[in-house]
Specification:
Elements: E1 3-8, H1 14-29, E2 33-38, E3 48-51, H2 55-68, H3 76-89, E4 93-96, H4 106-113, E5 119-122, H5 162-174
Parallel strand pairs: 1-2, 1-4, 2-3, 4-5
Length: about 180
């Protein structure tokens, strides 16, 4: 029986969580096993749920982002545990949704996925995947993401790593298996 594993910040909660739930139910109706790995909020699901990290992991990751502008670059332990779980599940397809919001290290996840034969689908529900920091560049009418982010107009906290984040994401996506 084929297996689908979706990764999202929530499971059957909020817009992207409900989208993942609907996709999982559709897959199950077609004879697939369905798993949803999630980082924070959830409600009951017909898919098998896989919790990524703990509340403490979420708080630590939040602090890294808030203080050091490192969203998606913390939660190493939680992401390595997820990688072990993915290895156990042996999915045929991994569908990524929102992999930001304080629960996952995308570099560790991509490094693993790029070494497997697992098919990966990434549904962009926002712009975080291809910007240096922001979820929606339209708010500030900022088009830096088209060339290179830096000196982010939306980042008004302690540290602005938008250029570094942009370059790391670009490199991670460029190294993705095609």
């Amino acid at each position: 029986m084929p297996t689908l594993l979706q990764i999202n910040v929530t499971a059957n909660w909020g817009s992207t969580g409900k989208i993942a739930e609907a996709i999982g139910q559709s897959a199950m109706k077609r004879g697939w096993n369905s798993y949803i790995a999630y980082g924070r909020k959830m409600t009951t699901s017909k898919s098998n749920l896989v919790k990524v990290g703990s509340k403490m992991d979420n708080y630590i990751h939040f602090a890294y982002n808030y203080l050091l502008d490192m969203e998606g670059r913390s939660s190493d332990r939680a992401t390595k545990a997820l990688v072990r779980r993915i290895t156990e599940i042996k999915p045929d397809v991994v569908q990524l949704h929102n992999i930001h919001d304080h629960f996952l290290n995308y570099a560790i996840l991509f490094e693993y996925l790029n070494q497997t034969e697992i098919q990966v689908v990434w549904t962009f529900h926002d712009c975080w995947a291809f910007t240096g920091h922001c979820y929606h560049f339209v708010q500030q009418n900022c088009m830096k993401w088209q060339t290179e982010c830096g000196k982010c107009v939306q980042r008004n906290r302690f540290v602005d790593r938008s250029r570094e984040n942009f370059l790391l994401k670009k490199a991670s996506l460029a190294n993705a298996r095609t």
